[in-house]
Amino acid sequence: MADDLESPANTDEMPFIAPCRHVSATAPWYWLSEGFEDLRKAALQSLTYGLFMAVLIMFVMIMAWQYGSAWIMFSMLCGFVFIAPLSCVGIYAISAQLERNQKVSMRRSLRAIFRRYLGTLLIFALVLLIIFLLWARAASVVSIFLPEAANPSFSEMATYIVVWSLVGGLFVGITFSASVFALPMIMHRNVDAITALLTSVNAVLHNKLAMLVWVILILTGFLVGVGTAGFGLVFFLPAVGHGVWHGYLDTIDASQFPRHEVGITAIPRLDNDPPPPIHSHESD
User: Fold this and answer.
1) What is the Cα–Cα distance from 114 to 121, expressed in whole angstroms?
2) Does residue 96 contact residue 264 with C-beta atoms inside 8 Å?
3) By Cβ atoms counted within 10 A, which residue in 46, 49, 116, 168 is the most buried?
4) What is the pLDDT of residue 280?
5) Distance separating alpha carbons of residues 232 and 224, to the nearest angstrom
6) Element spanning 179, H or E
7) How far from chain centre, in Å, is Cα 28?
8) Helical axes 193-206 vs 154-179, angle rounded to 10°
9) Domain boundaries defined on the chain
10) What pLDDT, on the 0 to 100 scale, is given for residue 7?
């Protein structure tokens, strides 16, 4: 976690992507525990984001249940592509303030979203939109495997379900890999969206087991949260957001990229250049 050292001013000397560290399969448990600790320290601000996201998710699920799959497509387009990145950066801003021993301010978090990083976030959202459109196109192609018979056999339905799951899983994996560490990096360092995206993909590819554990933890918590009529999501979603921030700091060494000139992350963390955590190894 030496990513808060001074960065070179010459942009020609910066790497194509930030190097990553290998992390153990147990690291996601540490990230989640740190996430809940940040939630405890800034409960009001974190739960505000959690309530907003939980209400939005449950509303879309209810609408999709009543009015069909069109609501699912609309929610993925508007929520995941545009709203989720903005909400996540707000959560990361809270964690960044905590580790700098600053008074946590919702105003400062919102300023980080709409004044500091909005342009880069919109470029990132455009990349996600392209992935989403390709996903939607692939889903329509998969419909050729949908049985035409009124009473399809088990094998026919199994073929459709398997193909649909493989295609969906592929695009979920691409989206997760591209975004999991990209947004924290945009918040943390003055980088463009493509560099952050490629850095995220590289880190996921080098830490497949840890990322699989992280996905399982997120999916399990999400299902439990939905099963409690969304109440659990109010607490779980911001904790995961904080956890992603800590996971990014553990996994990505962005010290060769410049700081933002203004804003929360223009100031070094208080734990500047601490020893590497026990669950991280060498950088790639």
Assistant:
1) 9
2) yes
3) 46
4) 55
5) 7
6) helix 154-179
7) 13
8) 120
9) 20-283
10) 44
Interacting residues of 14 by C-beta distance below 8 A, sequence separation 6+: 8, 256, 257, 258
In 3D space, the residue among 175, 182, 177 whose CA is nearest the CA of residue 254 turns out to be 182
CA distances to 51, 169, 171, 196 from 202, in Å:
32, 19, 16, 10
| 3-class SS of residue 229 | coil
Residue 114 has which token pair? 């709409």
Helix (H, G, I), strand (E, B) or coil at 258: coil
Residues 6 or more apart whose Cβ sits within 8 Å of residue 216: none
Give the Cα-Cα-Cα angle 77, 161, 223 (nearest 5 degrees).
55
In 3D space, the residue among 31, 63, 2 whose CA is nearest the CA of residue 253 turns out to be: 2
Q: Distance between CA 130 and CA 43 in Å, rounded?
A: 35
Of the candidates 128, 262, 103, 239, the residue with the CA atom closest to the CA atom of residue 183: 128
Paired tokens of 230: 């969304």
Tens digits of pLDDT across the chain (284 residues): 444 444 444 555 667 889 999 999 999 999 999 999 999 999 999 999 899 888 888 887 777 777 666 556 555 555 555 567 777 888 999 999 999 888 888 887 777 766 667 777 777 778 877 877 787 777 777 777 766 666 777 676 777 778 877 887 888 888 888 889 998 998 899 898 889 999 999 999 999 999 999 999 998 998 899 899 889 999 999 999 999 999 999 999 998 899 888 878 888 887 654 444 545 554 54
Instruction: Determine which helix (DSSP H) or strand (DSSP E) holds 282, and give its type and residue range.
Output: strand 280-283
Distances (CA, A) of 33 to 36, 91, 181, 254, 257: 5, 15, 18, 23, 28
**For residue 26, what are its two tokens?**
């147990």
